[in-house]
């Protein structure tokens, strides 16, 4: 097989003092060095970086592309404020609006890729009404766009598992057919009213099929903290260390410091990642404290322009801005930590190798006109160039190919 090589010339890397050239071969960064110093094979294609900053591809570790209205006419938000209101509104609206929409899923994933997201985990609704139609549609679109963005699906019982007879069988069918790489859960106590049964069911399926788990936990205060403790216990019992994530998990900031630190130590021991979307007025996870305790933290957009909320652009740099801003981060070092949450934190949560700008790393990266990560996050200019596995998939904010 012929080797594919690309030279990305005259770029800057974080904390670098001189412009560098990146030599990319077969999807990985083969070498990098000061501009003009690399031995470049004959016939190598060249992209002029023009002094732009090179940053590793970002990871949207928590989104819902099956719900999106991206690319369609504006739909005014009509759901009530409670979680149950939004679930019901989404289920009514998907019938009226023909969701999930192949065109919407396709358009949003291309938009995400064009802004520098090279890996995404999306939660797709599974229930007796929609069956596996959404999972099949997202899987099909993800395969079409596989050269632009890697997509991992979660089979997600949005409306409940125990409360919706037949849902468990559908989840198991999705696992048996290899349609998803992860199994979801949701609010075992607040929504399902039976934490033990809900958790035992999904952990049993995960252990049987050797799959990952990602549990939506909107539960607040002591209730949510207790559920987190139950999750940690089951991870250790089933030997699923490093394969489980909790999405949202804001209860950890609503209990006293002693309990919060105890839970943090448990999460670190069990290798449970916390995934934050930092949306609306929900509490912000204490990123620095959690990482200081050894807890892996990733980030995601959550819903993008859907029936749960009218906001969102699919841009993980924008989501990083919200995380850094609401965390009170002001220094470049702090902002770089928030950026790392959206790069290595998300990759680790999904069991993937984080992208890095160094020799041997996957060539998933983007170029941006900024002096530093701090400026990139604060200003969020269009991405000059985006590469996935060493191939150009977007220029100046616009996707190329796979239209």
Structural class: alpha/beta
Mean pLDDT: 95
> Can you tell me the residue ranges where pLDDT is under 50 for at least 5 consecutive residues?
none
State the end-to-end distance.
Answer: 26 Å
Strand content is: 15-25%
Q: Please trace the helix and strand order, writing H or E for each element.
A: EEEEEEHHEHEHEHEHEHEHEHHEHEEE
- Reading side by side through the largest sheet, how are the strands ordered? 6-7-8-9-10-11-12-13
| Helicity level | 25-40%
* Largest beta-sheet details: 8 strands, parallel
Model description:
The chain is of the alpha/beta class and 403 residues long. The protein is built from 11 helices and 17 strands. The chain has helices spanning 83-97, 102-114, 133-144, 167-176, 195-209, 221-238, 257-270, 287-292, 316-326, 332-349, 373-379; strands spanning 5-11, 20-25, 28-34, 45-48, 53-56, 58-63, 117-125, 150-156, 182-186, 212-217, 244-248, 273-276, 297-299, 365-368, 383-388, 391-395, 398-399. Strand 2 and strand 3 form a beta hairpin. The two termini are 26 Å apart. The model has no long low-confidence stretch (mean pLDDT 95).
Question: How would you summarize what this structure contains?
Answer:
The protein is built from eleven helices and 17 strands.
